[in-house]
Amino acid sequence: MFGDLMGMMGKLKETQAKVGETKKRLDTVMVDEASTDGLLKVTLTANRQIKAITIDDSLLEDKEQLEDYIILTINKAIEKATKVNETELAAVAKEGMPNIPGMDSLFK
């Protein structure tokens, strides 16, 4: 009984370490998003940290339009990055979980 418990604790620590490594790796995974017309481009990491914003000069003439572009494009980029992040972390977590009936549906 205690051997199983110790084994599960070891597996949990191993999984935590893998999750930490995955989070670090996701800092290097870049997600690009652009407005539909390509006038504004945003790059962020899969951990949702903005790395670059490129704005076409034509957008600088209309502050309100530029603000709308920034909000829409960044929100789309964050949504994309979140999906990558969640998929990667769920895969690592699922890999390290003991086989408990009914638990596998949590990581789909």
Automatic annotation (TrEMBL):
The record, for InterPro entries, names:
YbaB-like_sf, YbaB/EbfC
**A Pfam family recorded for this sequence:** YbaB_DNA_bd
* Record's keyword terms, sorted: Cytoplasm, DNA-binding
Q: Where is the protein situated, by its record's location annotation?
A: Cytoplasm, Nucleoid
Q: Which domain of life is it from?
A: Bacteria
**What biological function has been recorded for the protein in this entry?**
Binds to DNA and alters its conformation. May be involved in regulation of gene expression, nucleoid organization and DNA protection.
Q: Which NCBIfam families match?
A: DNA_YbaB_EbfC
Q: Name the family.
A: Belongs to the YbaB/EbfC family.
Q: How does it assemble?
A: Homodimer.
Q: Which PANTHER family does this entry report, sorted A to Z?
A: NUCLEOID-ASSOCIATED PROTEIN YBAB
Protein's name according to its UniProt entry: Nucleoid-associated protein RM520_06950
Q: What is the lineage of its organism?
A: Bacteria, Pseudomonadati, Bacteroidota, Flavobacteriia, Flavobacteriales
